[in-house]
Amino acid sequence: MEMTRIFDCNAENCVYNKDKKCHTLAINIGDDIPCCDTFMSGSNKAGFNDVSGGVGSCKVDSCSFNRSLECTAKGIHMSVVGNQVDCQTYRKK
User: Fold this and answer.
1) Domain ranges, residue 45
2) Would you state the pLDDT for residue 28?
């Protein structure tokens, strides 16, 4: 099994976001809601330019793509919703 890739993310104020792409090795997706637990606001950019982010773990039991806390989607889309960054690929079981 390969790590699920993050296709895009519009959280441009996140330290790992460059050109609407995630550049950290892996993110964690929230507990009860599918939000990015790795999101950090800031102007100083972090991560690696040659890295395309992936999903390290998913703790959202209600997601149909969650298998043993791993994301099985082919890839995910992340988007700012209110005050958080949510997984737009989330599908309720």
Assistant:
1) 5-87
2) 98
